[in-house]
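Hi all, long-time lurker, first post. I run a small reading group and we've been trying to get comfortable going from sequence to structure in the token notation. Rather than ask abstract questions, I figured I'd post a concrete chain and ask someone more experienced to write out its structure so we can walk through it together at our next meeting. Sequence below, copied exactly:
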Amino acid sequence: MTSELPIVVGFDGSADSRAAVAWAAKEAGSRGARLRVVHAVGLLAHAGLGGDADGHREVALAMARDAGLDPGAVEWSVLDGDPFSVLLRAAQPPEEAALLVVGSRGAGAHGGLTLGSTSLKLAERARVPVTIVPATYRSD
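-- Answer (accepted) --
Happy to help. Here is the structure in token form:
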């Protein structure tokens, strides 16, 4: 049985976003929900200076499978924009989500910060529940 609204999780390849995908996949499995993994592509990526979206896709989908999710219940989305705007849009109408999951810090975070600016802004502005997962999360 699959719930109507998916769990949306942000993924940028960082340790924190890997922990977020692991947590979100486990949560999606327990709810019988779909998992939508979202990767934001900004100007640097379009100029060839950003991360490897295809490589990120393979890592995220493998993590979801390893958590026991059926591959048919996992969707990968690459959307244009900064991570905050992309994730906020992915979790509100017309897309919608039951839950938004992010890592506590992303790939661009400064050392020493507990929460990144994206996770803080999402917790403040999202209209759905937001779970912020630290890199230290272990699904075992």
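A couple of things your group might point at:
The longest strand covers residues 35-41.
Residues 2 and 32 are 5 Å apart (CA to CA).
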